[in-house]
Amino acid sequence: MEHHKLIPFLRYSLALLLFLAISAQGDLVPNYDHKEAKLKVFEIKQPLVLFCNVTEPGDHEIHWSRNGTSVDKVAELKGRHTILKSEYKLVIDRAQESDAGLYTCSLPRGQSKDINVVANVAVKLPSNMAVVEGERLAIQCIVVGTDPIINWTILDNLTSSEGVISYLPDEKNVKDAILVIESARLTDRGNYSCEANNLATEHRITKPAVAVTYVRVKGKLAALWPFLGICAEVFILCAIILVYEKRRNKADPDESDTDQSPEQKKKRMISKNYD
């Protein structure tokens, strides 16, 4: 009977000892950029530095994992990551878009903290583009970053130009990354901009990424003007040559009379009288 009474006491004592052991390790404090969302944002191609500070003084060993796998076993991090044990830091050199994910720092006795790591967004467009009236216009917003959301501003208005504009995903399946006008019109010329947002911009850690391109729409006959110009030049040149040849031929008899000797002129006169 006494053994049954001891069991709850032993359980309570064990739980208390476990709590005290965990408390002795201190609390983990990650370097969040946004504490409520547990977010950390990094720039692509820049070092990514994560750390979990331990509130309790002492020599603590921090274990790091990404999406549940120890960082030492993540193939794409091989040769690019360093664990600074004394500073409780994980440093990833030349951070890539694919380095985003759920990172976890943990102590040996079970206490852990998650860090949602995302790549900041960046976009790129050509400075200007040209299309012939009636042809297909496709503008691709080249975007990098974690889970980007694309929005287009067309001719300084947030419209889709009466349904003639459509949007397609890119090769990375980013929604609305490509703006398409199947048959461009002269009125479609102007500024087109794409804006990218994600969790980082949503929580105002960073600003939205924006790029602008100017689209020129050429008339259908615009491509013929260079050809017509060449034809006009050839016509004028031929006319000049023709006029020159006619004038030269007209002047030839007079020049032949001038070039003859007196004896030749005399023979020619006799020949004319004889005739």
TrEMBL record:
One of the record's GO cellular component terms: axon
Protein name: Putative basigin
Originating organism: Lutzomyia longipalpis (Sand fly)
TM ranges: 223-244
GO BP terms, alphabetized: axon guidance; dendrite self-avoidance; homophilic cell adhesion via plasma membrane adhesion molecules
Signal peptide: 1-26
Biased composition (Basic residues): 265-275
Boundaries of every Ig-like domain copy: 30-107, 108-206
InterPro entries in the cross-refs: Ig-like_dom, Ig-like_dom_sf, Ig-like_fold, Ig_sub, Ig_sub2
